[in-house]
Amino acid sequence: PKCPNDALDHEQEIQKESALELVRHGRFHCLSPVFAAIGFVLNYLWCIFGFVIPNCCCVWRWPCCQASVEGKLWPWKRYWRYDTIEPKIQTGDLLLFAGAFNVRIGAQCHWSHIGIALRDDVGFHGLPGLLYVMEANFTDGGWDHCDLRLLRERCATYKSGSTDISWKPLLITYVQREDR
Q: Could you give phi then psi for residue 3, rounded to 5 degrees?
């Protein structure tokens, strides 16, 4: 059995490197603390101006981030009507759902959860041709659940239809989809 003094002997064997040795090996520079402080400040500013302030100001509702109207100042589209993209959504595509305001601020992320699209062409879950979303979510009462719901209804009723839902297509060919 080992004596308690063996642990002390082992600690004495471990040598601490001096600052001069760290400099000699290129692992420390006299300005390293300054660089660390500058990095901290830049990281903090990026967090504030890149996440917190945009989420507090609801930038996704600003006119420059909305869908363009023909001949207007903003030529790009950020938002699309559901009827425009519904025919393009296929099984396996991802849907990102925006969280509540406190979730966006606390998590520093616009999205709270995701869902997976299911286009039921055969009619296993209802009438053929309906589009569903499978999502895992939780409610105010703390009830965690997974649901298979009609996508059109979910888009209209999630947060009373007044929040963002993003569609991310699965990037595979039609032949690959049929093989699965």
A: -85, 155
CA dist., res. 24 & res. 20, Å (int): 6
**Arithmetic mean of pLDDT, 58-80:** 60
Given this model, what pLDDT does residue 156 score?
86
DSSP 75-115: -S-S---HHHHGGG--TT-EEEEE--HHHHHHHT-SEEEEE
Q: 149 pairs with which residues across the strands?
A: 133
3-state secondary structure of 144: strand
DSSP, res 57: T
Dihedral over alpha carbons 77, 80, 84, 85 (to 10 degrees) = 100
CA atoms of 148 and 130, how far apart (whole Å): 12
Q: Whole-model pTM?
A: 0.56
Rounded to whole angstroms, the Cα distance separating 126 from 146 reads 18
pLDDT digits (tens, 9 = 90+) for 104-127: 767 767 788 889 999 998 888 888
CA gap 120, 143 in Å, rounded: 27
